[in-house]
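Appendix B, record 7
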Amino acid sequence: MASQKTRVYAGIQVPDTSIVSSALKYARARLSDMAYNHVVRSWLFGFAIASKAPELQSRDHEVHSIAAILHDLGWDATGELISKDKRFEVDGANAARDFLKRETAGEEWDSHRLQLVWDAIALHTTTSIGLFKESEVAATSYGILADFGGPEHAFGGHLTPEEYRAIVDELPRLGLKEGIRDIFCGFCKTKPEATYDNFVGQYGERYVEGYSLDGKRIIDFVENITLP
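Structure tokens (predicted):
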């Protein structure tokens, strides 16, 4: 890839291209303060980690950036990007792809780059798959995971406590755990069918009155097959 303009943000060198700037503005307009800080921290953590991981050096930096920055559009604070029937990861992936189609020229963002962004977002909570896909997809997940596990659990030990602290000082956590709980419990109430086959349903079972996974799990479907 041609050399891209970069800048240093909270001590981490990241792309400073027009589409990355547009993605930051779009995320800021769509997300709560808590969610916005989370996605930007995830971007910075991912770049800190990838800068030291040999297997991630050749990734597309813009794809990684866009996927990280837009990965939680499925939490859209305005509600406009949230479907009635899809997992939040799919809502986010669809919204990011739509954003790129609106904002970029076709040749610059071909179908392969669009698909990498879609996959990175759609699979960011399914790391048992995502970490084994392309480097852009894996790097996105590594950054997101670091925002939950901290430097002690970062891939390859590639995030230092000093890097972590500088990023969190710049972008405070703002009650991330509690904020996520509220969002996921909301999905369990408003579109429960999109939560039964994934971890969001666990929030429903623990915190939402009347919510139940009984008869809704994949094992229930398979065990109830009556075909010969």
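Remarks on this record: The CA atoms of residues 151 and 160 lie 6 Å apart. The longest helix spans residues 33-50.
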